[in-house]
């Protein structure tokens, strides 16, 4: 695979040294011209602030690592991701990486990559295949744990209350790992106390627009909502607009828990409009570049690379915001 690509590699190596001579400070430029690789990356889309930060992280770290990146945006559609993966196979990239829109339905195309001897790395989201040989590594968060952290905050927040706590839930994209797992982790924790009742749960597609619309319908059919649990900041931010438009105060009349901790979410948290955020880091680029280089060189890598994450209260958000990278 490397020999066939020698011409392209040389050209790319030259490009790196030319750009570095022009003052580009990409750290790797002086080094390993001969291990330069091409990654085909099939992204989900641009549905949220998280996704935008994730795309930026991947593009910037590819540049810094001297990796040639072929980037495709699937606009939220699995069929587009499958097409992109097939095109990466035809182009004979060294490594294919992608963040699966949904969990199921990947075996056929990943078998094609395997037959073509192109290693695959999953980033951010898992697939539900039982054949673990279809990918080398999966780098990303533990979404079940994120859901549990959200539930634990709620249990603690309402520890002195015995009346029912009415919860509405805005789910992520149907079938996506973070939607399935954040729902499951949360449900598991709150199930321990029957006072917690999820009175409505619907998808808001991880977007602000849908988060706002669905929250409007929740507010029309329920006048007794205590808590909103949104699977990401963007849906929570959309819902805040709906809550304010209905004459209610977000963070007070309805307490809000979200996941991600992107800047806009953290700002709303610091203003008391959101009450608690579970962090999910989109900065997966540098680790992906490391993994991809190792995999391309035939080295063995960890099958599961977990992202380290924390949680934020309004006070912690105020402290963290000035240094926040996304
Ligand atoms: O939480 C959400 C995004 O897969 C972790 O996708 C990611 C999720 C993230 O659209 O905002």
From TrEMBL:
Keywords: Signal. InterPro entries: Peripla_BP_I, SBP_2_dom. Gene3D superfamilies: 3.40.50.2300. SUPFAM superfamilies: Periplasmic binding protein-like I (SSF53822). Residues 1-23 form the signal peptide. Residues 39-299 form the Periplasmic binding protein domain. Belongs to the bacterial solute-binding protein 2 family. This is ABC transporter substrate-binding protein. It comes from Kineosporia corallincola.
């Amino acid at each position: 695979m490397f020999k066939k690509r020698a011409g392209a590699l040389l050209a790319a190596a030259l490009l790196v040294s030319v750009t570095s001579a022009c003052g580009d400070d990409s750290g790797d430029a002086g080094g390993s011209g001969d291990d330069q690789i091409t990654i085909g990356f099939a992204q989900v889309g641009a549905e949220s602030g998280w996704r935008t930060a994730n795309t930026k992280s991947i593009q910037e770290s590819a540049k810094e690592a001297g990796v040639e990146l072929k980037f495709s945006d699937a606009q939220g559609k699995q069929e587009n991701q499958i097409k992109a993966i097939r095109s990466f196979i035809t182009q004979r990239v060294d490594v294919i990486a992608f963040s699966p829109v949904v969990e199921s339905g990947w075996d056929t195309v990943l078998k094609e990559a395997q037959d073509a001897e192109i290693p695959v790395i999953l980033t951010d989201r898992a697939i539900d295949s039982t054949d673990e040989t279809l990918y080398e590594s999966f780098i990303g968060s533990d979404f079940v744990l994120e859901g549990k952290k959200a539930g634990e905050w709620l249990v603690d927040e309402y520890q002195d209350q015995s009346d029912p706590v009415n919860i509405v839930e805005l789910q992520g994209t149907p079938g996506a790992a973070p939607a399935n797992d954040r729902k499951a982790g949360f449900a598991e924790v709150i199930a321990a106390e029957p006072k917690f009742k999820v009175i409505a749960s619907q998808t808001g597609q991880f977007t602000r627009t849908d988060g706002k619309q669905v929250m409007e319908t929740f507010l029309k059919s329920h006048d007794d909502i205590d808590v909103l649990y949104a699977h990401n900041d963007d849906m929570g931010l959309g819902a805040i607009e709906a809550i304010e438009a209905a004459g209610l105060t977000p963070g007070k009349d309805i307490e809000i828990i979200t996941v991600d901790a992107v800047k806009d979410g953290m700002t709303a948290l610091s203003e008391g409009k959101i009450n608690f955020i579970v962090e999910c880091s989109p900065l997966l680029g540098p680790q992906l570049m490391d993994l991809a280089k190792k995999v391309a060189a035939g080295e063995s890598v960890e099958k599961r690379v977990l992202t380290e994450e924390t949680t934020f209260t309004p006070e912690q958000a105020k402290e963290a915001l000035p240094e926040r990278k996304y």
